[in-house]
Structures are given as structure tokens and as C-alpha cells.
Specification:
8 strands, 5 helices, 37% helix, alpha+beta, Jelly Rolls, four-stranded antiparallel beta sheet
């Protein structure tokens, strides 16, 4: 079925949307259960959510998405490794590398902004794509479990923001060796 859909729409097979209700192996559910974003969600809820999602595969060097593209969902890496890269002054800068059990693109579930970075497969990858529509289906079924995911997403993004704040602070302190950089005035913010 996926092969026919790809041929009909001129889509590479590696980007095939697999049918809804992708096999719910215990390993897929367990993978999500180990992630902070899905913490405290019941097995039944995770299986429902997985039944709404699709599996996406990418070959080495292939992009899941590119910086600036419209954002529609997040990905959970099942197999393989990816790198997160940003463009700056005509160069590509590597921000980090992620592997199985990590996720990326989760900001798309909270805001309506374009992608802030590109994600490229370093090896053959398979990921679970969770879109806004998938979460809306969960909201219609169980608003409490939906709210729990939203709170977990906010906590994860807050954790990352704190880590970034710390990095910026250390960069600012390290750059001030000559005493030439004035500290920010937070009273005016």
C-alpha cells in the first residue's frame, strides 16, 4: 500500500506515510514511556497516540526537515542518529547529535513558527512522527492525558531554555575578561 501511495504522489519510498495503526510493538510503547515528554501517560494512551502517528524513514544525508520550513510535528527517533544544524553567514553549524530515544521538532507542537533548524540523518533512521492532528485526536479522547503531554512539553522546553541561559551566561562572563562588556540591565525588561 505504501509503495502504491508513493508512486501515485511521486514521493520517495523512504518518506512513505505508513498506514494508520502502525504495529504497536511493546518496544515502541516502551520507547515513549522512557521519555520525559510522555512521562506518567498510561500504556493505553500511548498505544492510542501511536495508532494516530506515522513512521518516517531517512537515509544517511537525507533531511527530515530544513530550517525555515513550515513546522507540523515532532519526531521520536526509533533507530539511527541525526544531527541538528543551523545556517549562519553561509555556513552550516552543527548544534548537536541525537540517537534512538531522543526527540526533535517538539516546538512545532506549541508554536506556529517555521523550523528553527534542520535535521539530517547521519545513518539510516526511522522515527515516529507525531503531528498536531495526532495530539488533537488525543485531546478529543482524553483531555487530561493531552494536558499532561502539554505540561511535559513545556517542562522539557523550560529545561532546555535554562541550559541555554546557562551557556549564554558562561559565554558572557568568559567574554568579559577585559571588563568591556556591560552587564544587561534586567530592570528595564
Amino acid at each position: 500500500m505504501a509503495v502504491q501511495a508513493c508512486k501515485k504522489h511521486g514521493m520517495p519510498l523512504s518518506r512513505a506515510p505508513w498506514p494508520l495503526g502502525v504495529p504497536l510493538s511493546p518496544s515502541r510503547t516502551e520507547l515513549l514511556q522512557r521519555m520525559p515528554i510522555f512521562g506518567a501517560l498510561g500504556t493505553e494512551t500511548l498505544q492510542f497516540l501511536l495508532g494516530q502517528t506515522r513512521s518516517v524513514e531517512a537515509a544517511p544525508g537525507e533531511f527530515f526537515f530544513r530550517e525555515g520550513e513550515a513546522a507540523s510535528g515532532m519526531y521520536v527517533i526509533e533507530t539511527g542518529r541525526v544531527e541538528i544544524v543551523r545556517s549562519w553567514q553561509g555556513r552550516e553549524l552543527r548544534l548537536c547529535e541525537l540517537a534512538a530515544g531522543d526527540c526533535f521538532g517538539e516546538m512545532a507542537l506549541l508554536d506556529l513558527w517555521p523550523r528553527s533548524a534542520s535535521v539530517r540523518a547521519l545513518s539510516s533512521c526511522r522515527a515516529i512522527e507525531i503531528g498536531s492532528a495526532d495530539l488533537f485526536a488525543l485531546f478529543e479522547r482524553d483531555p487530561v492525558q493531552f494536558a499532561l503531554i502539554q505540561m511535559n512539553l513545556a517542562r522539557e522546553m523550560s529545561r532546555r531554555l535554562r541550559a541555554t541561559d546557562e551557556q549564554l551566561f558562561r559565554l558572557w562572563v568568559g567574554a568579559d575578561t577585559a571588563g568591556t562588556i556591560a552587564p544587561p540591565d534586567f530592570r528595564q525588561a
